[in-house]
Amino acid sequence: MSNRLIKYCPRQYNVALGATSIKLGTLEYYRHMDPKFSIADDGEGTHKITIKEGVEIPLTSAVSDRLSGGAIGGNGVTIIPKQNAKVVATVNNVYIFCVSVTPPEASPSLDQAARFDSTYDSFWEITDRIAFRDTIGNALANTLTLDCLSDHSRRIVESLPIANLSLQVLMMDNPVEYVESREYRIENVEDVERIPHANDALLRAIFRKEKRDEHQLEHRFIFAVRHPKLDIMLSVRPEPILIPLNRLHNMVAAGSPRRSG
Description:
single chain; about 260 residues; alpha+beta; 3-stranded mixed sheet; about 20% helix
């Protein structure tokens, strides 16, 4: 048997019990959420590198890509930080929907729901992961307007000819990787090789959280707005979006609320 994907929530938002919409959060929304909430995370979607003072790094094009995505010219010059240097990159803001992974030998419960939020008194299960992801992504594509884009991304789109105004919703999902720290530390030149290339690092950043949140056992569905001709990801506004749904009945199942013990 495979792992089960469980969504804990207040009963009125349980789509398996008749809720007709689903709320997608964003990376920025969770970064700025009140930290008293267990799902708040001020490091969501961030990629951090610290270079130790005095480390000599030959700035080749490959090193430049790892450290800055090529923003710093890779001309072979050696850089030597006079103090600890930090590089922080943030993923373009995307929509996310988070559920919990429950091993086949375990059972979801309201006690587990309460670990996320004391108002969570219900849960439902995704029984067809791919169909669920595609249905949400297609519904989002039919809901999005230019008003959903960040100011900067909207200006990019509005400056284009009409023939180039098409946008896409890119969909992906993965379990979250829990790490001791999101930060990559360079204490000698060999450490540079451990840092993924910029594009890979930013993608990984969406699915990386720190060990302190490991109890959440999270699986994430990501919905990013992409401009296919420019081949860039656009940022959405920080606010969550409510997506109307009417075709989920064959890919979700209602949970049976219970308390452990």
